[in-house]
Amino acid sequence: MLTAPAGYAQEINSQELIIEHNSQEGESDLAYDFFTGTLQLIVPVQANPDQGAKQPVPQLQLNRCDLGQNQYMLIESHDHAVQQFIQHYNKQLQTAESEGHKIQATVIGAYKERDGKNYLRVKSIENVKTDTSCHLMDMFP
């Protein structure tokens, strides 16, 4: 009789809990994974402020540290992890682009593809490191 290692059983139970939690919250069964990269604040262009258009809502993009240079727009789940991150790191995100500083983090999220674009439904943003990059090209001056 074959038995799974102890860590394997624990991993399955954790994944089942995540799926069960998502089902209870009304989200479809999501499979979460870890995505490491640098975070970039994307501010959409405002349509026409004279016609009463709403202010554009800043969005967060993950530039994954992989050979494919994949990019993912981060979308909220019920935990509001993305907006909390933007509020907490707002100053660093705004100066990151202009001063060449990067914010590296690991996003725990569920992948979605829509209209040829990559999205992650974010459960949490972990291991945040300011002024750090995991991109190979950033290691060369």
UniProtKB/TrEMBL annotation:
It comes from the Bacteria. This is Uncharacterized protein. It comes from Alkanindiges illinoisensis.
